[in-house]
Amino acid sequence: MAWVYLGIAGLLEIVWAFSMKQSDGFTRLAPSVVTIIAMIASFALLSISMKSLPLGTAYTVWTGIGAVGAFVVGVAVLGESISPMRVVAALLIVGGLVLMKVSEG
């Protein structure tokens, strides 16, 4: 279950990053509330997953999901630029996540 909680926590990190962007510096109420709720839920689920997963693995996977997910959302939803170098960078993050999971044993 720890991996499930960690995956959901990572997805919630994407949600709060996107809603924070939409909050326009916390000047818009609804996205600001979504940001805060998603942050709290994401941290709570990360904390639960850390009961049985190593710190380095859990935190790296959580931030990796958030980083790559925010990149994808930025490109797909917000129309941010995409370049071969940015795609390679995202793939390197994904590769690191896979190695963390595999090496956890």
UniProtKB/TrEMBL annotation:
GO terms of molecular function: transmembrane transporter activity
One GO CC term, this protein: plasma membrane
InterPro entries, per database record: EmrE-like, Small_drug/metabolite_transptr, Small_multidrug_res
Major site of localization recorded for this protein: membrane
Ranges annotated as spanning the membrane: 27-46, 58-79, 85-102
Record keywords, A-Z: Cell membrane, Membrane, Transmembrane, Transmembrane helix, Transport
Localisation: Cell membrane
Topology within the bilayer: Multi-pass membrane protein
Source organism, top-level taxon: Bacteria
Gene Ontology biological process terms, A to Z: xenobiotic detoxification by transmembrane export across the plasma membrane
Pfam families (alphabetical): Multi_Drug_Res (PF00893)
Signal sequence range: none
Assigned protein family: Belongs to the drug/metabolite transporter (DMT) superfamily. Small multidrug resistance (SMR) (TC 2.A.7.1) family. Gdx/SugE subfamily.
PANTHER family hit by this protein: GUANIDINIUM EXPORTER, SMR FAMILY PROTON-DEPENDENT DRUG EFFLUX TRANSPORTER SUGE
Name this protein carries in UniProt: Guanidinium exporter
Lineage, highest ranks first: Bacteria, Pseudomonadati, Pseudomonadota, Alphaproteobacteria, Sphingomonadales
